[in-house]
Amino acid sequence: MTPSRSGFHTCSGGFTLVELIVACGVLVLITGTLTSILSQSQHAYQSQQYILEVTQEARAAMDQVCAYLRQAGNDPEDYLKVNDIPPIELLGTNHIRINSDITGSVPDAGGDPLEATGDPDGSLDNLYERVEVRYNPPQENLQLDIGYGMEVLAENLSFDFTFFDINGNVTAVENDIIRVRVELVAKTEDIDLQTGKIHSITLESEVMLRSQSFDLFAN
User: Fold this and answer.
1) Which of 20-34, 72-86, 97-111 has the highest mean pLDDT?
2) Which residue range forms the structural domain that includes residue 199?
């Protein structure tokens, strides 16, 4: 081996400035790509959570309203019949009162009749016996009153009742109502960051009024 003039070996290892700049550029590109993928995944997760929450709230609201509708007109003591009270009262656009005699035994002497439990008693003085359901368009919420006053049942939705008689015709005559169609469109409160749109879910259900479709208490 021939020594250099200075008596030392030279080394050509290490990065040039150009190589360092290229490496930094690649690193920035990879980091940016990973950040974008993670951000999209996070947005997708949030979007699915929004849809799940809206779906659960919408189904819970639909189930609750339909459950009250199925009880409409329950009248084993003929209280509604004698007093000419229809199973469903139409109080306004998408605002109804559902009447049903379903409970009545006061739990103890001097107890609150609103907290009564037990068999029907020939009155509509207790909780769940005069249930009001009202859709409030300006606020896009569904309100429910079971005896304590109106409370919000669900929000960010549109809601509609359609009433039918025994012949399948749409009717506004309270005593002719035998079937009710309930339509609900619930929306996510926040815009999807991926699509820039608001997601919605549509639910529809039809309820036959048991008291009107057949006589449960016929001998």
Assistant:
1) 72-86
2) 38-213
